[in-house]
Amino acid sequence: MKLIHSLVRRSGATATTWTREASSVVKVTSFSQAYAGFKCGIILGTSIPSKGGGTTEIEIIISHQEYSRIMQAMMCADSEKTTEGYAEAVLGKVQQ
Question: Which of 21, 54, 55, 67 has a Cα at 20 to 30 A from 48?
Answer without folding.
Answer: 67
